[in-house]
């Protein structure tokens, strides 16, 4: 765990001089009393800068994928599935194999564990690491995702764009010496801009940052994040055009009579989201076992996954890349029932294979595609069972798209807004709200609120249970320990008695380990030692239960204040 300073109420600083450095101005802004217009201006200007940089990063990432896809497949994501169906099957297989080798080389060389980072790591950074992600591994993960999505991998581009934006935010935070509340707000600004630029959806970008990454709706964060999100959307519209991603058929007058059907669709989509999440985790587990069983190296594992994806793509080219061409066909009623079902099953397998191969990419776009396919299939059945009155199958597809995505991402509010902004259709937004609400309830009964939080929980980071479960991990023992020999510290005799029982802490342990130990020992203190790899632990001090409880209470109070400020 990284060593982070505890947030505290710092005394007010005098106003920065006219010739003060940007870093000094920001530090003054952090310490300034609430309501200081000059301090707010500095922070908002930094938010705007982050929004512009993150927006360009997201657009650049998208254009780079399209450029490489065009070179390899002869088309970008708008028509790549149709183009791949016309290519030589050997080429369709060879491209993802080569991509897998490249991904394996990147991740094995530039990451600690050979895994690509994603949105879950950004959420963890907001909660536990002062808003900072590992810069080297973040850039490597973005490069791996770029190769994966350009060479036949079956994941999404929005997750890597979010992580790349987080890298930019961390760099800005270091340049301006941001910490604590303001560092997390700047991270939220970067995430909002990336999502906004990716989807041309400024409302959704704002809510996604608050709902998924910061996981609160504090007023102090809202303004800067909105500004950054708008900056991302403006950049998207300048370079990509002011158009919606998908176009729906016009709604029909029968829509309101079909509300119960959209509710049932929500239940169905919640179950599909749970299956998709579990399929990814099962596939990762199978990949780990295959790697151990056959001794696969860091290049062989993603290459094998690429080969399997290539074989699948020969028969099902729709699994290639982000999948917006197939999503558009589902929304415009261009697929029949069995095609939707088979495509959805194949996409689930392909996403699992991509994650099993430790290749890059996210789950945002796959969940949109899965939802559109499931919704389209549901709509075909619904309109056949009750042809009068009956609405548009495309409306079921867009409702399914929002429902599966919201359940996978744990973001019902921002997903509803994303679907609305992608389609520009108020009628669709109503259908999505009904389906999203029930899909979220169903999914929450089986997963820890989202794919990301479940992913973190599997890694031992329990953020889904609330701040009381993870904040103790941010407080190292060394900040609270009383030094050996001090008047208020335990005697050496009493401390040694506990050490002999194996009850001790090191200075780098956190309260997440100390508090359960206090519950077991029922004593007022725990010895703190230096524990060399060989030899006996050396007593250096003691952690008192009362000090630990005061620290937890203080940081919970500060967190509560941040979330309600």
TrEMBL record:
It comes from the Bacteria. The keyword Ribosomal protein does not apply. Keywords: Chloride, Chloride channel, Ion channel, Ion transport, Membrane, Transmembrane, Transmembrane helix, Transport. InterPro entries: Cl-channel_core (IPR014743), ClC (IPR001807), ClC-type_chloride_channel (IPR050368). The keyword Ion transport applies. It is a multi-pass membrane protein. Residues 8-27 have a biased composition (Low complexity). One of its GO terms (molecular function) is chloride channel activity. The chain crosses the membrane at residues 41-68, 88-107, 186-210, 216-238, 259-283, 303-323, 335-357, 363-383, 395-420, 426-447. Its main location: membrane. It is found in: Membrane. Residues 1-28 are annotated as: Disordered. One of its GO terms (cellular component) is chloride channel complex. This is Chloride channel protein, CIC family. The lineage of its organism: Bacteria, Pseudomonadati, Pseudomonadota, Alphaproteobacteria, Rhodobacterales.
């Amino acid at each position: 765990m990284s060593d982070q300073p505890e947030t505290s109420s710092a005394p007010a600083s005098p106003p920065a001089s006219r010739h003060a450095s940007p870093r000094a101005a920001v530090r003054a802004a952090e310490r300034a009393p609430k309501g200081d217009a000059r301090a707010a201006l500095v922070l908002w200007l930094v938010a705007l800068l982050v929004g512009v940089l993150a927006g360009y990063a997201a657009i650049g990432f998208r254009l780079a994928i399209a450029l490489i896809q065009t070179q390899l497949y002869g088309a970008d994501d708008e028509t790549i599935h149709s183009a791949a169906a016309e290519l030589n099957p050997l080429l369709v297989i060879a491209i993802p194999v080569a991509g897998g080798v490249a991904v394996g080389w990147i991740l094995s060389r530039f990451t600690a564990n050979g895994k690509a980072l994603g949105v879950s790591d950004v959420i963890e950074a907001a909660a536990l690491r002062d808003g900072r992600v590992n810069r080297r591994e973040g850039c490597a993960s973005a490069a791996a995702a770029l190769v994966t999505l350009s060479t036949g991998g079956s994941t999404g581009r929005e997750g890597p764009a979010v992580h790349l934006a987080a890298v930019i935010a961390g760099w800005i935070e270091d340049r301006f010496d941001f910490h604590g509340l303001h560092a997390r707000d700047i991270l939220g600004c970067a995430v909002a801009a990336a999502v906004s630029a990716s989807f041309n959806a400024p409302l959704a970008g704002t809510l996604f940052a608050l709902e998924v990454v910061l996981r609160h709706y504090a007023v102090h964060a809202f303004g800067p994040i909105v500004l950054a999100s708008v900056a991302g959307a403006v950049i998207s519209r300048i370079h990509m055009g002011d158009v919606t991603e998908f176009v729906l058929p016009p709604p029909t007058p029968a829509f309101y009579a079909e509300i119960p059907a959209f509710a049932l669709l929500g239940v169905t989509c919640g179950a599909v989201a749970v299956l998709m999440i579990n399929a990814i985790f099962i596939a990762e587990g199978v990949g780990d076992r295959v790697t151990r069983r056959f001794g696969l190296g860091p290049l062989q594992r993603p290459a094998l996954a690429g080969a399997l994806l290539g074989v699948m793509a020969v028969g099902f080219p729709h699994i290639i890349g982000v999948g917006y061409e197939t999503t558009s066909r589902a929304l415009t009623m261009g697929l029949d029932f069995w095609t939707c079902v088979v495509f959805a099953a194949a996409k689930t397998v392909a996403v699992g294979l991509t994650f099993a191969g430790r290749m890059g990419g996210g789950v945002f776009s796959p969940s949109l595609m899965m939802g559109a396919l499931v919704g389209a299939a549901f709509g075909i059945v619904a309109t056949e069972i009750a042809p009068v009155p009956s609405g548009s199958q495309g409306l079921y597809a867009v409702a399914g798209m929002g429902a599966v995505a919201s359940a996978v991402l744990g973001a019902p509010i921002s997903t509803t807004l994303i679907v609305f902004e992608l389609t520009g259709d108020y009628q669709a937004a109503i259908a999505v709200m009904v389906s999203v609400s029930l899909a979220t309830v169903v999914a929450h009964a089986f997963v820890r609120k989202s794919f990301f939080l479940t992913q973190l929980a599997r890694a031992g980071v329990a953020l889904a249970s609330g701040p009381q479960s993870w904040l103790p991990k941010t407080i190292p023992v060394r900040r609270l320990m009383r030094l050996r020999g001090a008047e208020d510290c335990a005697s050496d005799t009493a401390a040694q008695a506990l050490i002999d029982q194996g009850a001790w802490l090191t200075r780098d342990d956190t309260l997440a380990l100390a508090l359960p130990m206090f519950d077991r020992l029922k004593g007022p203190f725990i010895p703190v030692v230096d524990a060399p790899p060989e030899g006996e632990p050396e007593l250096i001090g003691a952690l008192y239960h009362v000090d630990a409880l005061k620290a937890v209470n203080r940081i919970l109070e500060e967190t509560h204040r941040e979330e309600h400020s």
